[in-house]
Write a structure and sequence with these properties.
Helix content is 72%, strand content 0%. The chain has 12 helices and no strands.
């Protein structure tokens, strides 16, 4: 009896957490199908399936171009973060040199600075490099908060890998790059997927740097494009199209999380079994 009550309580708690987490996204979907005064109705079901707000968003200005900008920036940030993170993690976890621990702590300390604290310095750097109002300005700025986390996590994972694997590869005259690519990378997939996914989500949702370093509508990313959606008058906000735009850019991220979550769990489970 006690076991059954515990199971019921666990399921009830899980249902409450899921409802609390999913309800905002569900209500955004419902609101994206409403117009006018319907948006102020607390109904949990849309009056009818109306996708006109989605058509309005996709036809309004360069929104599809903004989505493409976000995809390009996020993918490049993930690729650069993982490449630099892998090589840095190999040096910090496998190569013996003085100052290794202070260097790793310094890398971690960089992520503790708020974004606004380095905004002015980044702005001057972006202007000096001549990449203002270009996607590369966002890629450069996003690496500041994706690289420290990536290096730290990959260093922690790589440090726990058996040394015998590396020693066996060295006996076979494998270079450090071959060891990293063919020996360590297959074992680091859980960490690579986790850090890559978090870097993608962080780059996809970032707003402050995207608002500061992009000016023309064709170079903006989707968070800025959604924030700058305007209504018929200066004081009118098109809540229906805003909700439709939010759902449009959120669905791909949710799908990615659901897809890669299975790979993360399977990779962690496989790595937990030894012998």
């Amino acid at each position: 009896m006690k076991r059954a009550l515990r199971r019921v309580g666990l399921y009830a708690l899980a249902a409450v957490i899921i409802a609390y987490s999913v309800f905002p996204f569900y209500y955004a979907i419902v609101s994206s199908m409403k117009h006018g005064s319907q948006l102020f109705s607390p109904a949990l079901l849309p009056p009818h399936l109306d996708f006109s707000n989605y058509a309005t968003v996709l036809q309004q200005g360069p929104f599809l171009r903004n989505i493409a900008n976000s995809v390009f920036v996020a993918v490049m940030v993930v690729a650069i973060s993982l490449f630099i993170g892998l090589t840095a993690a190999y040096a910090l976890s496998r190569v013996q040199f003085s100052g290794r621990k202070p260097l790793l702590l310094t890398v971690l300390a960089i992520s503790m600075f708020p974004q606004v604290a380095v905004l002015s310095g980044l702005f001057e750097l972006v202007r000096f490099l001549g990449i203002y109002d270009r996607p590369w300005s966002l890629i450069l700025s996003y690496l500041i908060f994706t690289l420290p986390f990536t290096v730290w996590v990959l260093t922690t994972f790589m440090r726990d890998l058996p040394k015998e694997l590396e020693e066996a590869a060295i006996m076979d005259q494998a270079s450090p790059w071959i060891i990293l690519r063919r020996v360590f990378m297959p074992l680091l997939w859980p960490a690579l997927v986790t850090t890559g996914l978090l870097a993608f989500i962080g780059s996809w949702n970032e707003f402050l740097y995207a608002l500061t370093f992009t000016l023309s509508p064709n170079e903006r990313t989707v968070p800025v494009a959604i924030a700058l959606l305007s209504g018929a008058t200066q004081f009118e906000l098109p809540w229906g199209p805003i909700m439709a735009a939010s759902v449009t850019v959120t669905v791909p991220v949710v799908v990615m999380v659901l897809i890669f979550q299975r790979r993360i769990v399977s990779g962690l489970t496989a790595g937990a079994v030894k012998g």
